[in-house]
Each structure stands twice: as C-alpha cells, then as structure tokens.
C-alpha cells in the first residue's frame, strides 16, 4: 500500500507541470509569463527551473526548497527585493543561480551560506543593491564566476572576493565605487591575479569620488 501510494505520488509529481510553464527533461521553463506568484506543482525531480522575466517579488522558501535536486535556477528580470536570507536553505546541489535584473538591496552571509555547490552567481543589474557584507560568500568556496556589475555598490571588502579559491571571473563594473585605500587594495589585488574582469575594467571601473 505504501509502495503503491508513493508510486502514485511519484507519478503525479513527475507528470505534473504548472499550466503557465513547459516541462521537459527535468527542466521547467516559465519565461515571460507575467507570473506574480511562484508556480505550484513543479515536479519534485526538477533539475533546471527558469522563472526569468516575470513579476515575482519574493521566493517562497518552503516550496523552493522542496526542489532539492535543483542545480540551475534562473530568476533574472523579476522584482525580487528586500533580503533573501533564509530563502535558499536546503538547495545543496544548486550550481547556477541568476538573480540579475532584480531589486535586491543587501547580501549577507546568510543569503547564500547554504549553497555550498554554487559555481555561478549573477547579481548584476540590481540598482538598489548597496551592500555586500564582508564574508557574504565565505561558504561558497566553489564559486568560479561572480557578477555584481551595474549595482549601487560603493564598497566591497577585498577579502570577500580574495578568499574565493576558485574564482576565475568577476564582474564589478559600473558601480559608484568609493575610492579610498580599501578600493585601491581591491584594484591592485585584481591586477595581480589572473581573474578575468568581465566588462572593460579600465573603462567601467572608475571611482565616483
Ligand atoms: C525596489 O526596492 C526599493 C527599496 O526597497 C523600493 O522602494 C521600490 O519600490 C522597489 N521597486 C520595485 C519595482 O519593486
Ligand atoms: C556551510 O556549508 C556547509 C556545507 O558545505 C553546511 O553544512 C553549513 O551549514 C554551512 N554553514 C552555514 C553557516 O550556513
Ligand atoms: C573605505 O570606504 C568604505 C565605505 O565607506 C569603508 O567601509 C571602509 O572602511 C573605507 N576604508 C578605509 C581604509 O578607510
């Protein structure tokens, strides 16, 4: 009976697809559907979820974290705001997270600390993002590509990025960087390392005051 029941639940879980979305090969795609709410009945075995170009202003932690097999999550071009702390709590397989073109304001250690498999993190084009706390990525040691271009950052502690042993690519252009010794330290560290600065470093990264 238990076996039968779990088979039924598994089958329903596998064939269900939110009506606004298309589901294929463990990928659920809901791009540009004007969604204001996180879609329900997403198959639990989903590995890729694309929610780009909608109107989501928040992500429900409970529903999201049922998707514990997720490796790719694209929430770009929504209106996600406030802080996302305690949103990503058990997505330990997540490798790719795109939160660009949203309305994030702050990143803290709690925001991404549980995403220990994360390799790509896109936070660019969040015009309200004014603060990335020191050690925000301390638990994301596999991070290879981080993009915080075109935000409203004036400051980032050098150690926040320097202590990422696998970082290969960093986007920091077009922020209103405050040019004090801390920023100069970041600039000289960046010049020393082999890290690729996406965008044109000399042109994009300038101090606003
Ligand atoms: C973005 O966030 C700011 C500050 O929290 C808020 O005033 C604004 O209304 C938000 N914009 C959108 C489009 O949600
Ligand atoms: C850091 O990541 C590990 C998994 O690598 C996890 O067990 C731990 O809870 C995380 N720490 C915090 C404070 O989130
Ligand atoms: C540089 O400015 C930032 C932001 O105002 C500040 O947090 C940091 O401590 C400053 N660094 C130095 C060396 O004054």
From TrEMBL:
It is a single-pass membrane protein. The keyword Isomerase does not apply. Pfam families: LRR_8. GO terms for molecular function: potassium channel activator activity; transmembrane transporter binding; voltage-gated potassium channel activity. Residues 16-48 form the LRRNT domain. Gene3D superfamilies: Ribonuclease Inhibitor (3.80.10.10). Keywords: Cell membrane, Disulfide bond, Ion channel, Ion transport, Leucine-rich repeat, Membrane, Repeat, Signal, Transmembrane, Transmembrane helix, Transport. GO terms for cellular component: voltage-gated potassium channel complex. It comes from the Eukaryota. Residues 1-23 form the signal peptide. The keyword Signal applies. It is found in: Cell membrane. This is LRRC52: Leucine-rich repeat-containing protein 52. It comes from Crotalus adamanteus.
